[in-house]
Specification:
By secondary structure, this protein is an all-alpha fold. It has one domain. The chain is elongated and about 75 Å long.
């Protein structure tokens, strides 16, 4: 029985890892698209801010911080749904342990991942030139 359950657990771990990587890539692509559209939409405002003395890094940080509230909300909702579904599975299958401190650490890692992706996606702010905006 341990051999059969061991192989099932191994296959579930592999499938979970694959879905986690796919989800991370999808989130990264979505954040890059959001940052690019925000930069296109607010191009003049970013140019004005650069003219007032803001650096590109400060503007990138500011733009990445816009994502944090929705990311926190999404992570909280996802965690609540995940823990609830795990409890539901526990009632159907048997004992499935949820390590809450580990879940919290993974939530923090997800938030950091989202922030870093948004920050990297906002790097197009560096291409905004105050002179170019003034001549338009």
């Amino acid at each position: 029985m341990r051999t059969q359950l061991g192989s099932a657990c191994t296959s579930i771990r592999i499938v979970t890892a694959v879905f986690m990587v796919i989800s991370a890539v999808v989130v990264m692509i979505i954040l890059f698209i959001l940052m690019e559209s925000a930069i296109r939409r607010d191009r003049r405002e970013f140019g004005i801010m650069k003219g007032l003395g803001y650096t590109s890094r400060e503007l990138m940080f500011q733009l990445a911080c816009r994502i944090v509230p929705s990311a926190v909300f999404s992570v909280i909702i996802g965690t609540v749904i995940g823990v609830t579904m795990t409890d539901l599975l526990t009632s159907i299958i048997g004992v499935v342990k949820v390590n809450i401190p580990q879940v919290i650490v993974l939530d923090i890692v997800m938030l950091i991942f989202c922030f870093v992706c948004a920050y990297v996606g906002a790097r197009k702010i560096k291409t905004i030139s105050v002179y170019e905006l003034m001549t338009e």
